[in-house]
Amino acid sequence: MSDRLRRLADVLVGYSAGVEPGDLVVVQGPTNVEPLLEELYAAALRAGGMPSMRATLEVDDLLLSEGSDEQASWVSPADREDVEQADVWIVVEAPSNTKALTGISPEREALQQRARKELRERYLERALQGELRWVLTAYPTQAAAQDAEMSLAQYEEFLYAGALLDNGDPVARWRAFAEEMRRVAEFLNSKQELRIVAEDTDLTLAFGGRTWIPSEGRENFPDGEVFTAPLETGVDGEIRFTYPAVFRGRQVDDVRLRFEEGEVVEATAARGQEFLEEMIAVDEGAKRVGELAFGLNDAIQLFTRNILFDEKIGGTVHLALGSAYPECGGTNRSALHWDMICDLRSGSEVYADGELVYRDGRFLAV
Amino acid sequence: MRDQRLGRLADLIVDYSLGLEPGKVVRIDAPPVASPFAVELYRAALAADAHPYLHVEPERLPELLLAEGSDEQLDFVSPIAQAELEEVDAIVTVWCHSNTRALSRVDPERHQRLLASSQQLAKRRWERMSSGELGWCGTLFPTQAHAQDAEMSLTEYERFVFRACHVEEPGEPVAHWRSVREELSARAGSLSEARELRIVGPGTDLKVGVEGRSWKPADGRYNMPDGEVYTSPLETVTEGEITFAFPALFNGREVDGIRLRFQGGRVVAAEADRGGEYLDAMLSLDEGASRLGEVAFGLNYEIDRFTNNTLFDEKIGGTIHVALGSSFEDLGGQNRSGLHWDLVCDLRAEGEVYADGELVWRTGRFLEQPQPAVEHV
To answer: Is residue B374 part of a domain?
Structure first.
């Protein structure tokens, strides 16, 4: 048990974050996963880093229900200093209740989000300048297992398999997988346009001049996708998302979208229609696609209602409504970034510049 | 289920000990095992319109650091921790262990090195505290480990802790502690007029000079529970001998049956039934380690027994304690040392204290209450 945890910690510290001697390493996560936090601390020490522990208790519900607006929008010195001073930031998500904030009014949540915007921008800026490396991971809790409709033990097995930690040398496996993803990205970078065809889906997305980037297990762990930002006006047709679309604990089922010149012109859902419409209307950019990506991790096969895992399911494609990644060349700006996943593992085809390149969840010749 | 006593204790610390004002930034330091109490403190600080945040540190980190860390890693002081210390207005330290002896078998030299590096932050904290920029209160969350040290069940121990803090029953703990403040201030005032104390008890006849030193009440602002009056005695005057009935604990080590003989303020003979070597090592730590830095009366009569924890033991109503080593500068103390080791002497069954020749204390009680008098439960 602890041997597995230790290997996970070593891969996160050594491979994902690439901790080097002298690095100030902030380890952040809830005390639910104290054993993992301890292993990360020890792994950072072994790598010669200077670990700084930020173990958290889940008090946001208390803050947002009992605190004043001023208190809810306050940013602690700890949060500010972590973002300002860390060389490496390892964040573990492990909620004890994924719906704990469901009863909080959206305005209160938005208040907190706005207050933390500066922090978010600062860490992205430091990351872009190469001053800060961050990695986000999720560790199984009973709550997450419940969302995934699994036992905790099953969910742990799922995580270790998806993280390529179930057998062999995990770092060697991640290096080989990264190589494969780079080939896919390179192939897609030679194309201009994709057409995705599946049940109730026929969508064309143009991305000429944009960059496909392989996601190799550095900033997300586990990982396994290639992603880009399509042209803001280059999306046409319709798509039906096979998996429920989950955003901040709220679930919308069977989303169908129709696009014209990049913009959503029709949106329907079997459940949660109102929330879907609200989100699309958040701002101008929320109507457009900020991200197009292929999930390539074949060790992740099950839908678990955690986007960190779900968007990497091998044989899926996902779109995000809202903000685009500037590193891909995307220019769409929005407060929203909502990933929606379409399973292509059976009865699907993808054409690149008119040529069939992908069928039933697999690239044909990459 | 919420333990109402924890809520009352949290409110007491926020409202009385810290007197937290709206808009102030308060950090709550606690290990994960104390989470229920940390959350209550967080809630109480929110209710006071302050800005609380939690600093939770897994208990195993020092053990891991000692096991895996290089000298450089042991010496490292996080710039994040330094910056935080400059920005907070108050800190609550929740002392709490799941195992009070987890570090008993670590390499003492490396442990010493780690303690020395953590002193840098502690020093800065004391600086900010003594200049009044930083509020601080140390308290305890009861666990099985502390109950075990106290030789009680957890249920009994919880009752003991909450009684000592005066929050076991619903009521007005703030009013209680305000009256304690008044009483102890009056007591400190009258003791400040004394030139010499003579403490007489089993195996004990000790003269301590206190002329010109001021006495201070420990009234629940820096510790909860609290309840003592203390000063730093004259450095070269202590004469005679003293026997400590309770085991003396320091850094997780225990020395039993300590007897000390003083001449001209210095320890000239030291014996112990158990742990004598450690006692000798501590006494020879530096020049100041063999002189007294503190003499104090324990006056919290809701603490009625020894529980192997200095936070409580030094406040046992009816005891006297002295500390070997560093003294309090603000009270006129001049003794400097790396040591400050509190040793508790039980005077409840048999014991007298004379101030300038006049009997002022017998069997654990001052003979006259200072004004205004306060009844203890």
So the answer is: no
Under 8 Å between Cβ of A334 and A283 = yes
ipTM value > 0.95: no
**Mean per-residue pLDDT for A82-98?**
96
The residues that bridge with A246 in the sheet, in sequence order, are A251
Give chain A positions within 8 Å (CB) of B10: none
Cβ contact A90:A37 at 8 Å: no
Domain end position, chosen among B113, B136, B171: B171
- The pairing of strands A201-206 and A235-240 is antiparallel
Contact B261, B267 (CB under 8 A): yes
Going by the DSSP 8-state scheme, the letter that residue A13 receives in this structure is I
Contact A266, A203 (CB under 8 A): no
CB contact under 8 A, A50 and B64: no
Domain end point (choices B171, B191, B222): B171
Read off φ and ψ for residue A64, nearest 5 degrees: -80, -25
Q: What is the pLDDT of residue A365?
A: 79
In this structure, are residues B233 and B292 in contact, taking their beta carbons and an 8 Å threshold? yes
Q: Alpha-carbon distance A343 to A360, whole Å?
A: 9
Amino acid, single-letter form, for residue A34: E
Q: What angle do CA A182, A183, A188 make, to 5 degrees?
A: 95
Helix axes A117-128, A77-85, angle to 10 degrees: 10
Residue B190's Cβ-count burial label (10 Å; 0-12, 13-18, 19+) is: middle
Mean residue pLDDT across chain A: 95
Q: For residue A19, with 0-12 CB atoms within 10 Å meaning exposed, 13-18 middle and 19 or more buried, which class applies?
A: buried
- In the 8-state DSSP scheme, what is residue B21? P
Within a domain: B371: no
> What chain A residue is nearest to B69 in terms of C-alpha separation?
A45
A26: nearest CA in chain B? B80
Write the DSSP string, B198-257. EEEETTEEEEEE-TTPPPEEE-SSSEES--EEEE---TTT-EEEEE--SPEEETTEEEBS
**Total number of domains in chain B:** 2
Task: Please give the Cα distance from B350 to B346 (Å, whole number).
Answer: 8
Does the distance separating the beta carbons of B61 and A53 come in below 8 Å?
yes
Contacts of residue A48 in chain B, CB cutoff 8 Å? 70, 73
Note the pLDDT tens digit of each residue in A302-314: 999 999 999 999 9
Q: Give the closest of B42, B47, B84 to A77, CB-based.
A: B84
What single string gives the DSSP state of each residue in A191-243? -SEEEEEETTEEEEEE-TT---EEE-SSSEES--EEEE---TT-EEEEEE-SS
Q: Is A78 at the interface with chain B, CB within 8 A?
A: yes
Claim to verify: residue B139 and residue B215 sit in the same structural domain: no
A2-139 is classed CATH 3.40.1830.10: yes
Task: Identify the residue whose tokens are 């001021």.
Answer: B214
pLDDT at A114: 81
Tokens standing for residue A121: 């921008």
Whether B183 maps to a domain, the answer reads: yes
- Closest residue on chain A to B50 (Cα): A71
B370 prior amide bond cis, ω within 30: no
Residue B372 inside a domain? The answer is no
pLDDT at B304 exceeding the cut of 80 = yes
* Helical H segments across chain B, by residue range: 4-12, 35-47, 61-68, 71-75, 79-87, 108-130, 144-149, 154-164, 173-191, 276-283, 310-313
Both tokens of A237, joined, read: 């047709």
**Residue B373 distance to chain A (closest CA, Å):** 40
State the count of interchain CB pairs (< 8 A) between A and B.
Answer: 91
Question: By residue range, what is the domain housing residue B125?
Answer: 4-171
